[in-house]
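new request in #modeling-help
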Amino acid sequence: MKKKMLTMVVVVMMILVSVSGCGKKETGKSKVYTIGISQFAQHPSLDNCRKGFLEGLKDEGIVEGKNLKVEYKNAEADTATTNQIAQNFVSKKNDLICSIATPSAQSAYNASLSAKIPVIYTAVTDPVAAKLAKEDGTPSGEVTGTSDKLPVEEQLKMIRRVLPKAKTIGIIYTTSEVNSESAIKEYKAAVKKYGFQLETVGINTISDVPLAVDNLLNKVDCLNNLTDNTVVSALPTVLAKANDKKIPVFGSEVEQVKKGCLASQGIDYVSLGKQTGKMAAKVLKGEKKASELKFEQIKQSKLYINQKVASNLEITIEKEVIDQATEKFDQITK
Amino acid sequence: MGSIGNILLGVLEQGLAYALMSLGIYITYKILDFPDLTVDGSFPLGAAVSVALLTRGINPFLTLLLSFAAGVVAGILTGIIHVKFKVRDLLSGIIMMTALYTVNLRIAGTANVPIFGMDTIFDNSIVNTIFGGFLSPYKTVIIAFLIVVVSKFLLDFYLNTRSGFLLRAAGENATVVTSLAKDSGFVKIVGLAIANGLVSLGGCVYSQQIRFFDASLGTGTMVIGLASVIIGTNLLKKVTFIKITTTVVIGSIVYKLCVAIAIACGLDSNDLKLVTAALFLLILIISMDRKKKVKKNA
């Protein structure tokens, strides 16, 4: 008897929870767009994507609070949660889902397949490997967006100019992250051209990072970060250990440089987000279907240098290089 | 310091932080015979509490006590779920571990909190004055070692008190406890509280070592702890003059050493999981055989 009661209570609770998740749809005079933003983790670069995305929509006349309703949800780096968020957005019949980072994009596309809700993604390094696009760049369905593929060659060129004598670059990456796997392949192919050797360590969980760093620091002249979520999350450990041995760490984007990486020839995530916002506007206004837009990449990379880190490591960077920097930092932000 | 020395130093640092956690798992697994999965949540709980306090400028050494206290609360709750609500041991741990994930996120604020450049137990004005010059690279190891030694001796001391004796009896044979007119359920709750307090303390020390908190820190804690306990207690079974808690600490360091060796050999950490599992099973099978023999002889 007790068990039956309990089951009843649980069922009723579940129904309540699922009902409360369904809001009413607004019917205004002018068209108000509703979009859901599903972000994989709280992470400065991904936050910048979101900021840029809304700016890009604004440039096209779709303004939050006026003719745009935004619902933002963050999965806190839990893939299972991204699926729930995606299903929730689909059940609310949003006009569009914006998904930031690969796991969110995959979940959103998967959830919206039957509902025919367009998905616009950003910060997906390799849409082809993530099965969001075909080999020729055409979308797999109503899903398109922008890739934050690393400018590998540019980064290597920059490292060579900053450290003319360096021989070996070390990279730590997470074997379960598709983005990192493809970036490692690219680095392997490109390092020889710039006279480097590559040492890599593949890790599994965040608790492997300290030992992996200890191991690499004995073999390399510098470390180089990818946009690997796990390793970037453990950046304080990487930097502390590298600083002790006076070995520079190169970042993959500006936020890492602010936090104590020496330099990065990377992507400006705000402009990447803007570009994505403009694509989303096309889809919302009905000018193009998502499936008719190839995914895009940012062509030009930007150079960021942290001069405080350079002086800490006693590295002098040529004035020419410094002059090319988009932004220079004189302190390490906590 | 040579390159090998550097790797060994890293192994010691890591191993000592995990040793605190392994001591906790030793209590639940070896003494209470309770497969406590709470640890996958209470390890990052200690980390969450410590970063939450450090970012608010609380004295780093105070975080040790408060993390321990937080773990004690988690352990008590698991114990209550198990003893009072009659939920199976494994399930009670799983329920608590799941709940703690959210609690940890709430305490820390976000899924990832760096504490770079803040005062920690390993890096503050007092410590840096004591460990100046040539001692500086070793300060983390020395401080972690001191914390482990103090915890270990306190635990040894406790296990020799009346309450500690009851705890040991509760795992072996609950009827003994009952015959002494004591509540074996209460004894279990005490054991779980102390165990999770130690695990949480380990998480606190570990997060200050790696200088960040991450929601995923707890994944696989139970497995690492079990491996450490089993390696330590089986490896040094024949050595009679060291206490069993010491073997657990050594086991924890040996486990981390194995991981470091595997990484140095270029073994992928994904393959490492299988190696760990195989090693695990092997040691368990060997120790199982002995138990059976003992039973036959008895």
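bot summary: Residues 2-20 of chain A form the longest helix (19 residues).
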